[in-house]
Amino acid sequence: MDNPIKIGTRGSKLALWQANWVKSVLEKKYPSTPVELIIIKTQGDKILDVPLAKVGGKGLFVKEIEQALLARQIDIAVHSMKDMPADIPPGLCIGAIPERENPVDVFISRNGAGFSELAAGSVIGTSSLRRGAQLRHARPDIVIQSIRGNLDTRLKKLESENFDALVLAAAGVKRLNLEYKITEYLDPGFMLPAIGQGALCIETRKDDAIVGPLVASLDHAATRAVVAGERAFLNRLEGGCQVPIAGHGRISENQFALTGLVAEIDGTRVIKGEKSGPLDSPETIGIDLAEELLARGADKILEKLKSMAPESYES
């Protein structure tokens, strides 16, 4: 190619790490093809003083980049999969999902104390309703306080503001070489991750016969299958950042297993379940698990949350 492939990305350290990783892999695979980054500011980058759930949730970190992709200002969009809405705009597609990083959450405390060791009344910072609900369910005696900003900004706030600990995605912490700050990895049995957490989404135009095949070479089949199952679960529940929904898919002995939950924001009620089945049917398994949780009362939780005004959310 004479013209460089243009990768659209947010400008945070983590987003740039992710985009540069895609750039380096493409350059290694196709050394004669130049690749450059285009930084695009999204709505989620502009509104930093309001909890995510109050400003729209899903799509906040991808919409402007997708618009640039449709306008042919860029050729590839690199996102965190957990930021992706259920619906992909017409004309675009998920061109590749590379191999996933560790999908779990990590606990980072100011004084090195583990989650179970925190004193009553300790303040944990998170902008995620999913994390807040599960933390409250496990420890009703702690305080959850909203914290926004890029990963490095949040880590600085741990030191400068009134937080005793943070909960963050392991993937981002590892990608920025900040593992030494981790107090403990949170077992999915206690803290179920976000849908798609730890995976990248490389979005392309459906009609791009040149870039599409290049990007497709970065796809990791097992990761795509697991993420497809998780997203099918989320999509059936019609969930977004405004709803405490979590899902964790795994592949074991040619079987796909998915654990999912729906929770009240205050953590007083958590409806959790698991389903497994053939590896070639992750989406069916995801939908079946969603149906089971809905039948067990998740429908009532979702209806309640949809009727609530965003400003009444606690996290």
Describe the structure.
The protein has 315 residues and is α/β, with parallel strands linked by helices. Helices cover 33% and strands 23% of the residues. The protein has a 5-stranded mixed sheet with strand order 2-1-3-10-4, sandwiched between helices. A 5-stranded mixed sheet has the order 7-6-8-5-9, with helices on both faces. A hairpin with a 2-residue loop joins strand 11 and strand 12. Helix 8 runs parallel beside helix 9. The C terminus is likely disordered.
Explain briefly what this protein structure is.
This protein is an alpha/beta fold and 315 residues long.
Give me some keywords for this one.
315 residues, alpha/beta, D-Maltodextrin-Binding Protein, domain 2, 13 strands
User: How many runs of DSSP E, i.e. beta strands?
Assistant: 13
Number of H- or I-type helical stretches:
9
Q: CATH topology of the largest domain, which one?
A: D-Maltodextrin-Binding Protein, domain 2
CATH architecture of the largest domain: 3-Layer(aba) Sandwich
Q: What's the CATH C level of the largest domain?
A: Alpha Beta
Which series of helices and strands comes N to C?
EHEHHEEEEHEHEHEEHHEEEH
The spatial strand order of the largest sheet comes to 2-1-3-10-4
Radius of gyration, whole Å: 19 Å
